[in-house]
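User: tokens in, sequence out, please.
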């Protein structure tokens, strides 16, 4: 383990990608509403640096509303073929519009149209309604650039705690936790 858990996380993520773990950047993100009721869903990581993890979504979705009301979250990456997982928890802040636009431009056209068409998590009368909305948007933006929706953007999860877990025989797993203390990280071993 390195003294910098975000660097260690980047190494483990690279190991998972090099090992061919399917969707190595997929992670579960847990949020909670103002009453503390949790919800969790799978997302894809779209950036990692010294500040934390970046992901993008509809800000009017359940997760977006929960993050607006309670800007903290927990995440877990699980790479079963390697017997590893990483858990992270901390504060979440919206990314700038410039950062969101830069990522938006890298998304495939179909994903851009879907983001505009879907009121993520809202009830849908029937699939035909959604398909018609996508077709309408495809015609509107045919041959042109699809703009960033005003309700869509990125977030930064800045971890205050990161735990590295490795599978060991007899369930005597190896666990190392890092907790942010001021500007440094404190490391400790945890019982399996």
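Assistant: Sequence out:
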């Amino acid at each position: 383990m390195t003294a910098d858990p975000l660097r260690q996380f980047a190494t483990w993520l690279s190991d998972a990608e090099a090992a061919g773990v399917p969707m190595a950047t997929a992670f579960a993100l847990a949020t909670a509403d103002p009453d503390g009721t949790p919800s969790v869903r799978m997302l894809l990581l779209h950036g990692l640096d010294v500040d934390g993890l970046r992901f993008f979504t509809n800000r009017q979705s359940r997760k977006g509303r929960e993050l607006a009301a309670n800007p903290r979250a927990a995440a877990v990456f699980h790479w079963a073929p390697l017997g590893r997982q990483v858990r992270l928890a901390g504060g979440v802040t919206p990314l700038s519009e410039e950062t969101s636009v830069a990522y938006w431009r890298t998304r495939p056209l179909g994903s851009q149209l879907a983001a505009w068409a879907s009121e993520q998590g809202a009830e849908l009368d029937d699939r035909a309604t959604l398909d018609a909305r996508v077709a309408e948007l495809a015609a509107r933006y045919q041959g042109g650039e699809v703009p960033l929706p005003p309700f869509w953007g990125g977030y930064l999860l800045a971890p205050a705690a990161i735990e590295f877990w490795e599978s060991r025989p007899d369930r005597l797993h190896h666990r190392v936790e890092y907790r942010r203390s001021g500007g440094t990280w404190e490391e400790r071993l945890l019982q399996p």
